[in-house]
Amino acid sequence: MWKSETGFTLIELTVVMAVMGVFIAAMTGILMVAFDVHTEIVQENKEQAGAVLVTQHLERMIKSSDRSRSFGLTDNPLDTASGNDDKALRIQVNTDPFNPLYVFYYVDPVKKTMCFEYGSAIDASNPKMELGSGILSVTWKIEKNSVGCELKLESAAAGGATQTESMNFALKSEQEVKSTPAPTP
């Protein structure tokens, strides 16, 4: 009598398993590369979002404070500030000569963030708002019809490489560059 010979032989099973192994290894390699690229893109987007946040915040404050003599430079309060970032942008937000109020922008090079502070002077003991991330330094430029800055950014996605981003905001009123400390009340 003849027996029914249905099913797989050991050789057929081994060949199918080998082909499946090659296919699974190839798919795993592709997925690993895709996940690495995704992680890098997410990191770059976070860094760009920080610079965009700083840009939008600065633009709103500069445009809303566009009055003659409302912009100036003062010393960066952080002892760790680099030679390029030893100044803070000071924007006068009211017109009261006896009780002036300012908004200050400066970089904390240790935390690598742009700091934003409001008051009559920069108060190191006062908590400050932090904008953006990966900001190493800033160089401010106040001209007659514009206020600008050049940010030096660190990219964690690019292995710590630096890049520079320049911003310039046009003003309606003419400005004078003032590099004196804010008057004490």
Description:
The protein is of the alpha+beta class and 185 residues long. Helices cover 30% and strands 31% of the residues. The chain has one helix at 10-64; strands at residues 71-75, 87-92, 102-108, 113-119, 129-131, 135-143, 146-155, 161-170. It has a 5-stranded antiparallel β-sheet with strand order 1-2-3-4-5. Strands 6-7-8 form a 3-stranded antiparallel β-sheet, covered by helices on one side. A hairpin with a 5-residue loop joins strand 7 (146-155) and strand 8. The radius of gyration is 29 Å and the shape is rod-shaped. The mean pLDDT is 80.
What topology does this entry show?
Blueprint: H1 10-64, E1 71-75, E2 87-92, E3 102-108, E4 113-119, E5 129-131, E6 135-143, E7 146-155, E8 161-170
Antiparallel strand pairs: 1-2, 2-3, 3-4, 4-5, 6-7, 7-8
